[in-house]
Each structure stands twice: as structure tokens, then as C-alpha cells.
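Morning, I've got a small favour to ask if you have a moment. It would help a lot if you went through both lines with me. Thanks so much in advance, here it is.

***
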Amino acid sequence: MMFGIGELSRATGCPIETIRYYEKLSLLNTPPRTGGGHRLYNESHQKRLGFILKARGLGFNLDKTRKLLSLAENNEKSCSEALQLVENNLATVNEKLAELQAIKDSLLVMAKSCQCCCPSAKAPDCTIVDALFTPATNSKGCSC
């Protein structure tokens, strides 16, 4: 069964521009065209695009996604290569989580400081504004 780019987009939730971009990068195989120049996709294209989208959704960059696709198509490659890519990506995700936790902690401190020290103050006198103007190591707040 063959279908157009709009149908592929609707079936996968992938924007048409992104489908074209993946084709340009050779992540997605170039489909045949009709006499009028319209792309004709098949289930293989849809399956591959689904793979790409899932890999991207799991945080793999384009290069790593390309490597995963290569592993999927090569019977000579070992599963350990895929595992290494996943473990590296997991380490990156854990680093990002730690960064986000530090941001969350800082925002909670700023909110608590404002709630207990200056709930009725004018914005320029707010501890939040002060904290944003103060270098991170010298940040002052109130002790409540």
C-alpha cells in the first residue's frame, strides 16, 4: 500500500517538514514519486520513521539515531553496540536530571524566601529580583 506525505505525517504525528528533513539527511529513504512529483511512501517508510521518532523522543541525537538505524540493518553488528549507545544516553539523561534538580531547588528557595520575607513588597524590593541580580555564591535571602 502506498500513501502520500500527508498520510504519513498523520499516521506518525511527524510534521511534513520534519519528514522531508529526515529524507534530506538520508535517515529516511527517499520514496519513489508519482508522475506529478508527489512522494509515495509505504509501510517500510512508516516503520522506519517510527523508529527515528522513538529514538529522538528518547533523547538520541541525529548521529546516534543514524547509528541505531545502522545496527538495526546489519546482521554482523552486536547488541552490545546498541547497549553502549543506550548507556551513554542514560548517563546524559542523568546529568540533565541533576541539573534540573538543582534548578528546581534554587527556584524553591527563591519562592520560599519571597513568601516569608516580602509577600507585600514592591517588585524591585522582592527577594526573587534580588537573587537574580546577585551572583549565585553571594545570594542573600531572609532566614525564615
